[in-house]
Design a protein that fits this description.
Elements: E1 5-11, H1 15-26, E2 31-34, E3 50-51, H2 63-79, E4 84-93, H3 101-113, E5 124-127, E6 143-152, H4 154-167, E7 171-173, E8 176-184, E9 187-194, E10 200-210, H5 216-222, E11 232-243, E12 251-255, E13 261-267, E14 271-275, E15 279-280, H6 292-303, E16 315-326, E17 341-345, E18 352-356, H7 363-378, H8 401-411, H9 417-427, H10 431-435, E19 447-449, E20 452-453, H11 454-464, H12 469-476, H13 485-496, H14 498-503
Parallel strand pairs: 1-2, 1-10, 2-7, 4-12, 10-18
Antiparallel strand pairs: 3-6, 4-6, 5-6, 8-9, 9-10, 11-14, 11-15, 11-16, 12-13, 13-14, 17-18, 19-20
Helix pairs in contact: 1-4, 1-7, 8-9
The structure holds flavin-adenine dinucleotide.
Residues 11-17, 34-37, 41-44, 46-50, 52, 177-178, 211-215, 219, 237, 276, 321-324, 358-361 line the site of flavin-adenine dinucleotide (FAD).
Length: 505
């Protein structure tokens, strides 16, 4: 039997790697992708989770990035209306604040008009003395601006791209580390190691894409042996999650005295997400965690605005991630460009595309740009197609969430409203694949806690590559916030027994 040669081998199963693999597979390329841990276990599950133009980037004159991002908001919402939805942001303002009102007005005017806004409502001015958004805030804030952006479940967006890539023929390999890659006789020879079984693998490809996020330089150094590689600046950002600080669906945009901003966002129904920070990071990205200083910073910054201060003891969860920003020599971490850079190394015998930077919001466009370079290097196949596509389960209209909830309730009247809503938010039209022929709660199997049942866990194992309790609790879902210690342990035991159970069919 002849060896299989892929057109493209992608290193990294974050949003950029999975987005490129999906786009390429959909155009008819033969694609393989290796992710050393779980999908989205790197930066792509640790974001603020906004599909946004990036109001703050206007201050750094990043007009190209802001325009492309603004245009993407409604494209992505339409592509995945289950995991992406619009969010209104309240930007409280007071005289003598960090930025003058005219500057905020100008920024929001550009934001409204730079492009792409058809469904999202425009900017408004609020009187916080009468508007409910003023209720949790200190009385100093009498006025606010309100504008639109979007929200995304980041980790789910990654796995749905991986799922769709696989459905379109890509070979998708989680828990598979690329240990070396060399050019040989016109092809890339990629050596991999499976982190679960320890098995080695050898793959051949005409082109290699390095989408290893914060590890991009590490891969260039260790896998390709280019010891001097230093293209990205690693910038840590951390978030805290506290019990719900305010009612209502709107998020807050707070300006801090150090010129930075933070968001306070309604999160997973019962919580508030507060973040983020910006600090240079030197260690291995896998060891990132929130520092004491960051925790204090976030609590203090939010407490400047909320009547009720945010205290350390209110924190129920934290997470941290590393921005792999293209190193443009900016002196401050917060000023480094947020735009992405794609570098094609034609080399002899096998082109290599390195991906630097990139946001969740721009991943689809980044993939299209990557495909232009790939086409130029190994020959064009297909045409751009993702703008008018749906991610798995997202095949319903952008404003059709309530209709989908209604349909699922009608089909499964025994389910509680909250459970139905959660399922539609996670799986959209694919919720039925989880519920199958169930006619009563007991048909969903073991209840691990909250409304996490065996039927959902099995779906995640069979269709979304979930292999550990963490995959289920912190990336495929956020049920980690709802399950207690014993409940989490019972899921861990269930997942640990997985290989035996799978072999038993
Ligand atoms: P990653 O998600 O890190 O993926 C790279 C993957 O490569 C990893 O999973 C890693 O395990 C794998 N890998 C590495 N080496 C190997 C190897 N040798 N073999 C196999 N696999 C390997 N963007 C927005 O649009 N909106 C936001 O609100 C937002 N907020 C953010 C907040 C913070 C704090 C941070 C840090 C980022 C934020 N971003 C946001 C940016 C966005 O999250 C990132 O730019 C994006 O997730 C980067 O994706 P990636 O695929 O490049 O990297």
């Amino acid at each position: 039997m002849g060896r299989e040669v892929h057109d493209i081998f992608v290193i990294g199963g974050g949003i950029n790697g999975c987005g490129i693999a999906r786009d390429a597979a959909g155009r008819g390329y033969s694609v393989a992708l290796a992710e050393m841990n779980d999908f989205a276990s790197g930066t792509s599950s640790g974001a603020t989770k906004l599909i946004h133009g990036g109001l703050r980037y206007l201050e750094h004159y990043e007009f190209r990035l802001v325009r492309e991002s603004l245009m993407e908001r409604e494209v992505l919402w339409t592509m995945a209306p289950h995991i992406i939805w619009p969010l209104r942001f309240v930007l409280p303002y007071h005289k003598g604040g960090i930025r003058p009102a005219w500057m905020i007005r100008l920024g929001l005017f550009l934001y409204d008009h730079l492009g792409g806004r058809k469904l999202l409502p425009p900017t408004a001015v609020l009187d916080l003395r009468s508007d409910p958004a003023g209720k949790p805030l200190k009385s100093l804030f009498a006025k606010a601006f309100e504008y639109s952006d979007g929200w995304v479940d980041d980790a789910r967006m990654v796995v749905l791209n991986a799922r769709d890539a696989a459905d379109r023929g890509a070979l998708v390999m989680p828990r598979t580390e690329v240990v070396s890659a060399r050019r040989d006789d016109g092809l890339w020879v990629v050596e991999t190691k499976n982190k679960v079984t320890g098995a080695s693998g050898t793959h051949f490809a005409r082109m290699l894409v390095n989408a290893a996020g914060p590890w991009v330089d590490q891969v260039i150094r260790s896998a390709f042996g280019q010891n001097e590689a230093r293209h990205v600046r690693l910038v840590q950002g951390s978030h805290i999650v506290v019990r719900k600080k305010f009612e209502g669906p709107r998020a807050y945009f707070f300006q801090n005295p150090d010129n930075r901003i933070i968001f306070a966002i309604p999160y997973e129904e019962d919580f508030t997400l507060i973040g983020t920070t910006d600090r240079d990071f030197e260690a291995d990205p896998k060891d990132v965690h929130i520092s004491e200083e960051e925790t204090t910073y976030l609590c203090n910054a939010a407490s400047e605005y909320f009547k009720e201060p945010v205290r350390r003891e209110d924190i129920v969860w934290t997470y941290s991630a590393i921005r792999p920003l293209f190193d443009d020599g900016a002196s401050k971490a917060q000023e480094a460009t947020r735009d992405y850079v794609l570098k094609l190394d034609e080399g002899h015998g096998g082109p290599l595309l390195n991906v630097f930077g990139g946001k969740l919001t721009t991943y689809r466009r980044l993939a299209e740009h990557a495909l232009e370079k790939i086409g130029a290097a190994i020959g064009e196949k297909g045409k751009p197609w993702t703008a008018a596509s749906h991610l798995p389960g997202g095949d319903f209209p952008p404003q059709g969430y309530e209709t989908e909830v209604g349909k699922l309730k009608a089909g499964y009247p025994f389910l509680e409203d909250r459970h139905v809503r959660r399922l539609v938010r996670r799986y959209g039209t694919r919720s039925k694949m989880i519920l199958g022929k169930a006619v009563k709660t007991e048909d969903l199997g073991i209840r691990f806690g909250g409304d996490l049942y065996e039927a959902e866990v099995r779906y995640l194992i069979n269709h979304e590559w979930a292999m550990s309790a963490d995959d289920v609790l912190w990336r495929r879902t956020k049920d980690g916030l709802r399950l207690n210690k014993e409940e989490r342990k019972s899921l861990e035991e269930y997942m640990a027994a997985l290989p035996a159970r799978m072999m038993a069919g």
